[in-house]
Amino acid sequence: MISCNVMLVILATCNVGYAGVLQEDPIVETEYGNVRGSIKESRNGRNFFSFTGIPYAKPPIGELRFKTPQKLERWSEILDAQQDAPHCIQKNYLFANPKIEGQEDCLYLNVFTPQIRTKRNVENTGLMPVMVFIHWGGYVVGYSSTGYLGPEYFMDKNIILVTFNYRLGVMGFLSTNDDEAPGNYGLKDQVAVLKWVKENIKYFGGNPDQVTIFGQSAGGASVHYHMLSPLTKNLFHKGISQSGSALSLWCKPLGAEQLIVTKMQAQIVNCNSNSTTREMVDCLRKIDAADLVESMKTFKFFSIDPINVYMPSIEKLTKMNPDPFITKTPQEYIRNREYKNIPWVLGLVNNEGLIRAEALLRQSSTRKSLNANFDGLMPFLMALQLSVPKKELLITWEKIKGFYFRGKSHIDISNPESVKSLIDLYTDRSFAYSMYQSALYHKYHGHDKIWFYNFNYKGENSYGDAFAATNETLNYSWGVSHCDELIYLFKSPALFSNELNTNDKQCSEDLITMWTNFASNGTPNENWSEMNNFENNTSKNIKYLSIEGLHEGLGPEYSMTSGLHKSRFKFWEHMALVENLKELNETIRF
């Protein structure tokens, strides 16, 4: 069999316009100018081209802060694309000892490819599928650098990988609920990336008509949002949402409520919140970026909660804002079937709640405070104010506590049984139930091709170690943490210095194969069945792929099953919550 590298060299010598991976310092001519990359090696020894730190929009600084990303101008010199660009400015409270990192000038992307074009005028033949990854971080933190999202595993396959930064937190989502600062700049940055891909990816050997967007946590929710937004029409063709959807509570779009948050932000940094929104935003544009990000700690009422106060916004269509990202709730878009009916993979990891449980319990002082005022704090840590009227907060919490903590009147959060219950509660409230509801609601409203999965493979490494920091109460034995599937998709030397062991590598190769099969063929695996339709089936026990196993022993195991977290999801279905989908729950039952 002729190897792919050899075939690329043959193609190049046949003068069809593609280069193999033998030349030094590859240079690609984009619509905005030339970029110089470098040559790297994949996990299994295949050479590929790497281009990092390519700008995709003007720096969002000065007058461009809190504005839609602006299109680039051409550059004349060859742009060096051999180093990671800085992160978007942030303070990552999820990790120990958080500090301000990154910068405001951060709108850069990375392209990794097994082939590049040597001629701009050749026909679109031999182009590879494109996968665009949107990073995690609750819209307040996150990284696209190769230290966290190394491309080596994907580059063993015939696909083009794109990763990128987008604006976060106050810089990415501040809104006045009017034309002065309509919000969603971070999501509009993502739209700008997809437009850049549409224009330029063919020069890197990628097919602009075969683009899959995939993301984890906030990235997964972003994928779902792009399936709803009119701004991304014809910019992508498949989607993968990992541990996040537009129905997740932590990314619930807000309207007028965002102005209240913005006024509070203005007061914190000594801008006049009683002035016009134009004057207030002008003042906020002049505040040092690091001071703005640092000031967000003022919103926290307990430990690191809330992680973020800036959410996606429901915008208004006006003359000054002719291209809003969304103008109504995700539920309305789905109900009206105003979504992109594209192949969609979505799912979760088994113990998503470890990310929040570990962050809360890593310090003895936090555990002590939580034990002392468990019933007072938990309704707000669970964001119940988003789901029920104020007068119903405590009674709703009592029902939740009775179910998850088995009717105990006093909760000792240091007790292993209580810790497990807390993890399950965070898992369901923050991630699992909304992901499940998203799949069901789309299917109920006519979405054709959906695949669902649950990832419960326990490898040697875990993001839980990073989230736990020095905490001794929680440890890896509590399950598979939020973000853990990323270990098998991306090399992450900034977090995990060791190479994957035999079983972990097998899990990685399996996931990479399924994800790239989906990008290439529209089906992840012949043994992974699509979600069932509801025309002749009124059961919510949908089929999903179960990914199980340990890094010791037999390794990863795969099976089709149903009934994921059945009793827990059934509990939430019967709660009187704003976000519960009435027409779905009255028709489709467990």
UniProtKB/TrEMBL annotation:
<keyword id="KW-1015">Disulfide bond</keyword>
<dbReference type="Pfam" id="PF00135">
    <property type="entry name" value="COesterase"/>
</dbReference>
<keyword id="KW-0719">Serine esterase</keyword>
<dbReference type="InterPro" id="IPR002018">
    <property type="entry name" value="CarbesteraseB"/>
</dbReference>
<dbReference type="InterPro" id="IPR029058">
    <property type="entry name" value="AB_hydrolase_fold"/>
</dbReference>
<keyword id="KW-0325">Glycoprotein</keyword>
<dbReference type="InterPro" id="IPR019826">
    <property type="entry name" value="Carboxylesterase_B_AS"/>
</dbReference>
<comment type="similarity">
    <text>Belongs to the type-B carboxylesterase/lipase family.</text>
</comment>
<feature type="domain" description="Carboxylesterase type B">
    <location>
        <begin position="25"/>
        <end position="572"/>
    </location>
</feature>
<keyword id="KW-0378">Hydrolase</keyword>
<keyword id="KW-0732">Signal</keyword>
<dbReference type="GO" id="GO:0052689">
    <property type="term" value="F:carboxylic ester hydrolase activity"/>
</dbReference>
<dbReference type="InterPro" id="IPR050309">
    <property type="entry name" value="Type-B_Carboxylest/Lipase"/>
</dbReference>
<dbReference type="InterPro" id="IPR019819">
    <property type="entry name" value="Carboxylesterase_B_CS"/>
</dbReference>
<protein>
    <recommendedName>
        <fullName>Carboxylic ester hydrolase</fullName>
        <ecNumber>3.1.1.-</ecNumber>
    </recommendedName>
</protein>
<feature type="signal peptide">
    <location>
        <begin position="1"/>
        <end position="19"/>
    </location>
</feature>
